[in-house]
Design a protein that fits this description.
The chain is of the alpha/beta class. The radius of gyration is 19 Å and the shape is globular. Strands 3-4-6-5-7-8-9-10 form an eight-stranded mixed β-sheet, sandwiched between helices. The protein has a two-stranded antiparallel sheet with strand order 1-2. The longest helix has 18 residues. About 45% of the residues are buried. Helices cover about 40% and strands about 25% of the residues. Strand 7, helix 9 and strand 8 form a beta-alpha-beta unit.
């Protein structure tokens, strides 16, 4: 981990995790952090330092010559409103291309997830990053309001929006018909949901620190899975033993990678939870996995 990460007390990280997952609001997060002091450094300072910095985290410009990025609208029957919007990024050159659905965290389609979609397109994949908040106005420009909006939605309808998005990009005119799904946090759990719901229509799934599906639903999973896990992620890791047993009992092709010393969200390069070494390794593994199963 980098120097900035080492300067932030673990208690602040723990509070941030509660805040990120909606257990406490921003005010409570800052209030609790403010009572912590380490070596003369205020916990409030540490809390403010851990907030996302999206402008600094961009790795692929939307003007990059290797890609073409645009927002698209499409039907979503049974979803939040019947309509959806997503960020569609196409590789330059002649298609068709294998498709990847990129699913955001619990706050809508923020700039980090859009950048991930561009990263996939730069590697030759047709990438769609749906905005689950589009039926209620879209990602509002900040994670606090986005988190509140997403929490207010009917979760069954929201997941239907993701399922419809998956089918949209799978059947897109420039798609080969081979679909992978990748998701982060809430999106990781939703990737597991898609593996259950889509059966063989999903060719590969890569959940990053996502909640496991119900054990009884694992029998429906046909896609190979690559589970990306942070070592310091008690809530998600506690689900793994039962999930793994179910995967084994149902002969699901899976692999799991646990990244030493990392925290939930280690792939997100807009916050100090980011671990460059682990994120790069996880990315390389994800690309190789997709190139194997989406070819």
């Amino acid at each position: 981990m980098g120097k900035e990460q080492q300067e932030i007390d673990q208690r602040v990280y723990d509070l941030y995790d509660e805040y990120c997952h909606g257990y406490i609001d921003r005010r409570e997060f800052l209030k609790r952090a403010s009572v912590i002091t380490v070596a003369g450094v205020s916990g409030l300072t540490m809390a403010q330092a851990i907030m996302p910095r999206y402008a600094e985290a961009q790795t692929i410009s939307f003007t990059d010559e290797r890609i073409k990025a645009t927002y698209v609208d499409y039907p979503s029957p049974g979803g939040t409103s019947g309509e959806m919007r997503g960020y569609l990024v196409t590789p330059s050159g002649e298609g068709p291309f294998p498709a990847v659905l990129v699913i955001h965290e619990n706050r809508g389609l923020n700039p980090y997830v859009e950048d991930v979609a561009r990263r996939f397109a730069a590697e030759g994949f047709l990438a769609l990053a749906p905005d689950g908040l589009s039926p209620v106005g879209g990602y509002p420009g900040n994670d606090d309001d986005g988190r509140t909006l997403q929490k207010s939605l009917d979760q069954t309808k929201l997941k239907q929006d993701m399922l419809n998005s998956a089918m949209m990009v799978k059947d897109h005119a420039t798609s080969t018909g081979k679909l992978g799904s990748v998701g982060f946090c809430w999106g990781g759990g939703t990737t597991n949901f898609l593996a259950v719901e889509m059966g063989s229509d999903l060719a590969a799934g890569v959940p990053f620190y996502g909640a496991a599906p119900a054990v009884e639903d694992v029998t429906k999973i046909k896609a190979p899975l690559m589970v990306q896990a942070a070592e310091e992620d008690k809530r998600i890791n506690a689900m793994w033993p039962d999930f793994e047993t179910a995967l084994q009992n149902n002969d699901v092709n899976y692999q799991r990678h646990v990244y030493s010393g990392t925290k939930h969200g280690f792939h997100n390069n807009s916050t100090p939870r980011y671990s460059e070494e682990a994120a790069n390794l996880a990315w390389d593994r994800t690309l190789a996995f997709y190139k194997e199963h989406l070819a």
